[in-house]
Specification:
The protein is of the alpha/beta class and 254 residues long. The chain folds into 2 domains: 204 residues, NAD(P)-binding Rossmann-like Domain (Rossmann fold, 3-Layer(aba) Sandwich), CATH 3.40.50.720; 36 residues, no CATH class. The chain is built from 8 helices and 7 strands, in the order E-H-E-H-E-H-E-H-E-H-E-H-H-H-E. It has a 7-stranded parallel beta sheet with strand order 3-2-1-4-5-6-7, with helices on both faces. Helix 2 links the parallel strand 2 and strand 3.
């Protein structure tokens, strides 16, 4: 299985996932709304691996037209990584219907609709990997972003239910649950809120998450390594499962 679609691949966790698949020499289909970020990633990978096959798809996956554009370019795939999404902090009592709809659309519905298209093809072939990027917030309540937590928890249910469709095939469906990650967005947020020095800002930020065992932000490439592990043909016995890459913030033993 060598062809992978990664949504939201231009930056942040998606870029870390793309980095890992590039290192594994997968054929890459990188999807994002930002063409500049995709071009930058493609140039970076081709400098390291000149023979790598890379397609970039600039599209808005929240629209039917945007999804159809991807489907027309990549009608079949071995691995689908549903990473696209976003988060925001809004007080529960200030949340509007529009806030809820946007959150659930981008963090749940986009992945669900891509899965409807690609999982059917994987099942017809009898092999494939479907991977959702959820969040430790799916397990950890957070009163500052309740709508985000709910949307990410929905992904856990979707993933486990879709895994039931893969019986007696070599198709698997799994979730990865990252913790707070050191993306450019997080770096900007913590250096503005806590301290201009990144190391000090990270330390102060993690002090507000005392259950973390590693005591630092997760690096995007660490999340990428977990995703490529699940995508590997040798990970076929892992199905309907969740892998937490959150440094121990979640205190549950299961």
């Amino acid at each position: 299985m060598r062809k992978v679609i990664i949504t939201g691949a231009g930056s942040g966790i998606g870029k870390g996932i793309a980095d890992s698949f590039a290192d594994k020499r997968y054929d890459l289909i990188l999807v994002d709304r930002n063409q500049s970020n995709l071009d930058s990633a493609k140039d970076e990978y081709l400098q390291k691996y000149p023979q790598l096959h890379i397609q970039t798809v600039t599209t808005d996956l929240s629209s039917d037209e945007g999804r159809d554009k991807l489907f027309s370019i990549a009608s079949d795939v071995d691995v689908l990584v549903n990473n696209v999404g976003y988060y925001e902090n809004i007080d529960f009592f200030d949340l509007s219907d529009t806030d809820w709809e946007k959150m659930i659309d981008l963090n749940f519905m986009v992945g669900m609709k891509l899965s409807q298209f690609y999982l059917k093809k994987m099942l017809a072939k009898g092999q494939g990997r479907l991977i959702f990027i959820s969040s430790e917030s799916a397990l950890n309540p957070d009163s500052e972003k309740i709508h985000y937590c709910v949307a990410k928890t929905m992904l856990l249910s979707l993933s486990r239910n879709l895994a039931e469709l893969t019986r007696n095939t070599a198709v698997t469906v799994n979730c990865v649950l990252p913790g707070p990650a050191l993306t450019s967005g997080t770096e900007k947020f913590i250096t503005e809120r806590y301290d201009p020095n990144l190391k000090e800002a990270e330390k102060q930020f993690m002090a507000s998450r005392p259950t973390s065992i590693i005591g630092r932000l997760v690096r995007p490439e660490e999340i990428g390594h977990a995703v490529t592990f699940l995508a590997d043909e040798n990970a076929g016995a892992i199905n309907g499962s969740n892998i937490r890459v959150e440094g121990g913030i979640v205190t549950s033993i299961i």
